Amino acid sequence: MSSTPGGGAKVAAALPAEAVKISVDPSTEPFWQAARERRLVAPRCADCGTFRLPPTPFCWRCQSAAVDWTELSGRASVYTYTVVDGYPGLPGITLVPVVVDLPDAPGARLVSNVVGVDPADVSIGTELTVDFHPISDGWLLPVFRVFRVAGQPAQERRA
Amino acid sequence: MARHTGARDVAIAGIGATPYYKRGETAGQSITRLAGEAILAACADAGLSATEIDGLAFYSLARAGYGDQMEAGELVETLGIRELTFTAALTGGGGGSAGAIGLARAAIVAGDASVVVTVMALQQRMRLGTVVASKAATPLGSFVQPAGLAGPGHLMSLLTRRHMHAYGTTRDAFAEVAISTRQNALNRPKARYREPLTREQYFGARVIADPLCLYDFCLESEGAVAIVTTSLERARDLRQPPVPVVAAAHGGTREWGRGFSWFGMPDDETFASSGHQAVAGWLYRRAGVTPRDIDVALIYDHFTPMVVMQLEDYGFCAKGDGGPFVLSGAIRYTPERKPGSIPVNPHGGQLSEAYVIGATHIAEGVEQLRGTAVNQVAGAELALVTGGPAALPTSGLILGRDR
């Protein structure tokens, strides 16, 4: 996997499928099953409506175990990020690991990657949209691309 | 002058350590050998026989580093401990290092044990950051590791970026932590690094997880450190001047929780922090002192920005002012403490002396209060020792001088 196609600017990638192995438990599996259908979902407490990520057995606010799995729009914004050149066994890869806020799941954050962009074009507040990236064992990983309105440059929300 | 407030019912009576080695140098030794050598040295320092130990107060679940384990039974077997009446560990990881002395105190105050050893032994059998790709993440880890966050420095780079964004902190502040800590190691016989670090070297170094570069990371060293805690009364009859435990605290709040394994901390105040605010408040309240009363700070320095954030969380400067505070020279060691300054890690810390998961900081706190430190802060009466910024528990310890 080259992150500098054509020798031009760096392009952030996600780890190749064989380098990412996840595991699931009953609390987290619906998230991954939905991702396999290219849907981004988050657990919302069925009693008090509080979102939480990652999915855990109980609602931190009211301790209920009841969950509504809520489908999200896939829109997100960069809360913080880093740029990592190289990964064990993948010296040429460039990664932009990111923590995102999810506007339609307030209070819940996801840790993911921004892909398909020059890392220099990522900053806090950059608007993103979800995509799905193959990982081991047939699962798909939610990753993010910079959100662009057709014909316009990337949108940025200056914090 | 709050000189004699706080608990002061137990005291550290002995400290001991192995030499500090580079990665791989102790590969032929067992964890019990390393830990035992440090324990025997600490007992000799206290003027006690190892057979008199009756308590073990570990942290990090009694893990020795990342993959290995310290075993109470093995220590009893080989050290000739006659009766073990207390053996326990704080949960979590390096966050509990300073708090383990509070666990020792709990055992002694409860009457469950009288001579309690805290020990950490570390060998670098696996390199943090190279093992992640090969095995499946846990169900919760599956929400972090796939992003390529291969080691703790990668995780903390995300907090660091947010601190820079929220407060205008620059890499100069992290360079100052690395350079000033190195300066403190130059005259220390056991330090792994004894050459000055220049700004050119710092800014020319490989960036590992932007904005963190090589010199923002602590050392990959090996070795062991042990601490003997007993009642203040008994400590007064032993070989060394007692170093009373003024206060100890461990734990944390929901808003921090798993911290940089979770990333759900609700606001900049907690996200761009060391997770220590709550522990700091409990610690000062229990000690009956304020940050201004602290003479020397032994701050857990696995990554330079986390030193800056701890200085804020422990109230040495306002939240967000950590960068300008360190750049003012306020953390530099000088034999006479200057007003408004706080000497940080005069032992060279984990960045330059040795990384033994927080245990060297406790030992240095003891030396400062005995008045025997290599880089002694003149007349030090109170030392702050912190555990690692980590998933909770985080922890802190205030040590004092007897009478």
Describe the structure in your own words.
The complex is a heterodimer of chains A (159) and B (403). By secondary structure, chain A is mostly beta strands. Chain A contains one helix and nine strands, in the order αβββββββββ. Chain A has one helix spanning 29-36, and strands spanning 41-45, 67-71, 75-81, 84-87, 90-95, 97-101, 109-113, 127-134, 140-146. In chain A, strands 7-6-3-8-9 form a five-stranded antiparallel beta sheet. In chain A, strands 1-2 form a two-stranded antiparallel sheet. In chain A, a hairpin with a 2-residue loop joins β4 (84-87) and β5. Chain A is globular, with a radius of gyration of 16 Å. In chain B, α1 (31-46) packs across α2 (72-79). Helices cover 31% and strands 17% of the residues of chain B. The longest helix of chain B is centred in the first third of the chain and has 16 residues, at 31-46. In chain B, strands 1, 2, 3, 6, 7, 10, 11, 12, 13 and 14 form a ten-stranded mixed beta sheet that branches. In chain B, strands 4-5 form a two-stranded antiparallel sheet. In chain B, β4 and β5 form a beta hairpin. Chain B has 403 residues and is of the alpha+beta class. Chain B is globular. Chain B starts with 9 loop residues before the first strand and ends with a strand. Chain B has 13 helices and 14 strands.
